[in-house]
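Quick review question:
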């Protein structure tokens, strides 16, 4: 439902919003990691995203799916330059003024997308960007990815942090 709301062409920022949703969910990024991304952090030819500013200044490379790559490409080719409006910035996600979007603004866009859905239950749920990170981790675990690989993907220092996702999956199965 969120993807459908983001991609609605009546939304003047539909390509940017779709790319943001795609990178936060598809790459399991922390809010600050996505906000800090620059265009040159997208290694499209290698299907990777370089996270320069992870938690505790830890760097990592994250693989991107064909869907994430396509959403990013569409935004970069068909909308970013228009939003940039002559400004010079390497920031990936831009505000309507052509500046780097702040975490709070990205959160507000997620809330806007939620309200644009036709799902009344979803509209009433309280969640932020971090739920997208939890969602991808849960889905990867359900699809059979090992906790060790999920920990690497998310940039977790400790396996204990990653193990909380096993509880989420078990709760959903009950």
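Suggested answer, residue by residue:
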């Amino acid at each position: 439902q969120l993807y459908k709301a983001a991609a609605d062409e009546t939304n003047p920022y539909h390509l940017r919003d779709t790319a943001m949703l795609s990178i936060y969910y598809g790459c399991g990024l922390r809010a600050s990691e996505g906000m800090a991304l620059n265009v040159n952090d997208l290694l499209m030819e290698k299907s990777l995203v370089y996270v320069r500013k992870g938690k505790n200044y830890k760097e990592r490379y994250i693989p991107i799916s064909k869907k994430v790559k396509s959403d990013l490409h569409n935004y970069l080719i068909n909308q970013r330059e228009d939003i940039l409006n002559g400004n010079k910035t390497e920031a990936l996600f831009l505000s309507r003024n052509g500046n780097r979007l702040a975490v709070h603004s990205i959160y507000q866009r997620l809330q806007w997308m939620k309200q644009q859905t036709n799902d009344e239950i979803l509209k009433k749920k309280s969640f932020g960007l971090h739920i997208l990170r939890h969602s991808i981790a849960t889905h990867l675990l359900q699809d059979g990815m090992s906790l060790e690989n999920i920990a690497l993907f998310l940039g977790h220092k400790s396996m204990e942090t990653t193990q909380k996702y096993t509880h989420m999956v078990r709760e959903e199965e009950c």
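Why it works: The chain has a mean pLDDT of 87. Residues 4 and 148 are 32 Å apart (CA to CA).
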